[in-house]
Amino acid sequence: MWIRYSPAIGLFSVLLVILNCDNNIVQVTSSDLQADPVQLTFDGKTKLQPAWSNDGKRIAYIANEAVTTVAAHSTAKPVDEPLGLFHGNKNKFTDFAIDASGTQLLSVRLDRKSLIFHDLTLGVSNEIDTATELAHPQWDQSGENFGYIKNQNTIAIRSKSGGIISETTVPNAREIVRFAYHAAAMKLAIELKGEAHKIVIYDFAEQTFQDLTDANNDCRFPAWSRDGQHLAFVQSTENGAILHIFDFISNEMNDVLNYSKEMSHLIWRSTDNTIRFYADGRIVDFQVDSSRLAPDDYWDEQPIWYRSGEAVLALHTQQIGRLNVVDINTKEITFVDEISPSEFNFDTLATDMFPNWSSNDATIQIIKSRKIKDFLQVVKIDLLTGDESLVNTSLTQKTTREITPLFRLSRSQSGQRFVYNAGASLVLEDENGNVADLSQIVTEPLVQPVWFTDDKHLAAIHHAENTVKLVKLNAAQDAADIIPIDIPGFSGTVEGVIADIVFSNNHEILGARLAFTYQDAIYIFYLSGFKIEQLIAHGQYPAFSPDGESIVFIHENELKIIKLFYRFD
Questions:
Q1: Are 128 and 116 in contact (CB under 8 A)?
Q2: In what order do the strands lie in the sheet with 187-192?
Q3: What's residue 297's pLDDT?
């Protein structure tokens, strides 16, 4: 309900509400003032659990963002080695390559118009080059230089600092598919696309190109030995593949392996004279001196080699909830809880949940969860310094598996107490850590508890009945009256589920109200008049402002505010 109030028209506005209360939906007063929601965010990230500051000037919320953790998977170790992370979904990038230190990752965006440098230690990504048809970045053996394909016919070589060392354009090249770069040997082995692929050698010292293979032989995946004196590559055949090695000292070509399956992604391992490749969902080792084959490990995707093939990269994208704060007037967003390097040792990063402001708005308390078996952490964040400190509460004895869609934590308006549900039992705790398990006096299975409008009693949802219940506690908190709050047309229905309940304070004009969601719509129930209005047809997570005159909610992944009441000077 949008009521516009001024001393001159206040009585008329109230009378208008009373006169129009002959049905279950409160009528909106007419006015030329805008009642459209004000949008606070514009980034499209999935958002959850908005919470007003007590001064009504800021809103804390959880924003989900895609974060990709990078780990080294080795057949020699039972546990993957965490390397770091980058922001974004791995499926938005392709052609990954990592340096020998495991800290610097190159990739190409899917549109092949941007080459990206990811610092895995800091979690920071920068654009290195923007051109058309960027592809196949790779580091040289020293890890000091890297190269990549641009415009389909040019290979660019850069130093780690980003300076351009060379750009080599292959004459009459239809398309460069991939290449192998050896800085010490000062050579490029280039795979060119044609009716069949062929290998061409570029000598930086001589500045010459020379065909290594015939265009009819379909040769692919060139790979240098560590010393740069030998080049391995694959010739595709009808019956599988042939592994060739060319000796640049003797100028001899040797067929060292006839393989019955397709081979790809060759790399010359550094530990011994072994070539590792990928075939039929497995990583396979071929020992050149003994001609011995050793299937090493199953791998369900094309490998991204690390440390000369001693390991492959395992990339895992997660949606991580992080605490943000938006200033209502300026719409400036502060990323309060950014991912820190201390989290890199975990293969599952912490997700923030349920922000709650302190009474003086100086700190925000959140819950952090990791794996399903890990205990929760409750963290208090100082908004001025960014310092974090662990809070000792009963929540730290809970695990992530207890954070179900029916869980909720709610702090009182005074900031001195909070309530949450452990399963279907309510737990009350004060700021000194004193805990009251209400399961003995509240035997009904209640979930998603919140504070009632008087900030003394509780309300929660009886999920099985699809009703809201008021829990009136006595002063000693050893007895309680459970009173149903009947919402006409909603309580006990089976078409939808009542959720996301929240109460306003007892406003001087609007009175006390209950906001809730039902079938993806947000409704307001006026407790004094027992009338209901639909606030918005599609929305989630409503939250009243401290003065009860506005409501924030999430609509189409953005935070929006509707003003419910206007005062005029």
A1: yes
A2: 176-182, 187-192, 198-203, 208-211
A3: 77
The count of other CB atoms within 10 Å of the CB of residue 397 is 11
Beta carbons of 338 and 65 less than 8 angstroms apart: no
CATH class of 1-169: mainly beta
The per-residue pLDDT for range 82-114, each reduced to its tens digit, is 999 999 999 999 999 999 899 999 999 999 999
What gap in Å lies between CA 40 and CA 170, rounded to an integer?
A: 51
Residue range 171-288 in CATH 2.60.40.10 = no
Instruction: Please state, in angstroms and rounded to a whole number, the distance separating the CA atoms of residues 264 and 316.
Output: 23
- Comparing C-alpha atoms, which of 451, 371, 458, 502 is closest to residue 49? 502
Residue 21 pLDDT greater than 70, yes or no: no
End-to-end CA distance of the chain: 21
What is the per-residue pLDDT for 34?
41
User: What is the domain class of 292-563 according to CATH?
Assistant: mainly beta
Q: How far, in Å, CA of 569 to CA of 56, rounded? A: 20
Mean pLDDT, rounded, for 221-234: 94
Angle subtended at Cα 132 by Cα 131 and Cα 137, rounded to the nearest 5 degrees: 75
| Residue range 508-554, pLDDT digits in tens | 888 999 999 999 999 999 998 778 999 999 999 999 999 999 999 99
Nearest Cα neighbor of 27 from 37, 36, 14, 10 is 14
Q: In this model, does residue 8 exceed pLDDT 50?
A: no
Cα–Cα distance, 133 to 151 (Å, whole number):
5
Nearest CA to 221 among 210, 235, 209?
235
Among candidates 526, 504, 528, 559, which has minimal Cα distance to 48? 559
Mean pLDDT of 391-409: 86
pTM here is 0.78
Contact between residue 39 and residue 559 where contact means Cβ atoms under 8 Å apart: yes
- Extents of the domains making up the chain: 1-169, 171-288, 292-563
- For residues 12 and 35, the model is more confident at 35
Residue pair 430/449 in contact (Cβ under 8 Å)? The answer is: no
Residue 503 to residue 471: CA distance in whole angstroms: 13
Report helix, strand or coil for 20: coil
For position 567, what pLDDT does the model report? Answer: 64
With bands split at pLDDT 50, 70 and 90, how would you rate the model's confidence at 191?
Answer: very high
Please give the Cα distance from 569 to 563 (Å, whole number). Answer: 17
> Which of 125, 167, 126 has the alpha carbon at shortest distance from 150?
167
Q: Is 523 helix (H, G, I), strand (E, B) or coil?
A: strand
- Over the chain, what is the mean pLDDT? 87
Residue type, 435: V
Q: Where are the beta strands (DSSP E) in 452-564?
A: 458-462, 467-473, 480-485, 499-503, 513-518, 521-526, 531-536, 540-544, 550-555, 558-563
